[in-house]
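hey can u check if this looks right to u? its 114 residues, i copy pasted from the old doc so theres a chance i mangled smth
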Amino acid sequence: MAYTFAWEVPDRVGYFNLGESYSLEDANRLRVQMLEMLEHSTQPLHIMINICELKHFPMRMNAETWAMAEWMRHPKLGWLLVINKDANPMAHFLVSAVGKTIGVKTRFVKSRED
């Protein structure tokens, strides 16, 4: 698994670090994990995703990619905070485009502390 997960605030704010490589298989595993977490949540769940190290990721925007973003449409999803310190402008653009298309409340920050 290329990404790691930890609770920033238990059952309230999740933290994902996508690492250097993120594949379609990783995206599917993250989808399953996110849907499970969202279904069991009793309040809005906020997600922090660190893409600072991300270098290799799928750049196709096809039906399979959109299906994996299913968790972003979940009614219990709160804010999506994307950590990207100018490391990957293309990943930043893709996350921004998907978020805006789906209607996710997204904010980009430079660090985990922000």
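DSSP finds three helices and five strands in the chain.
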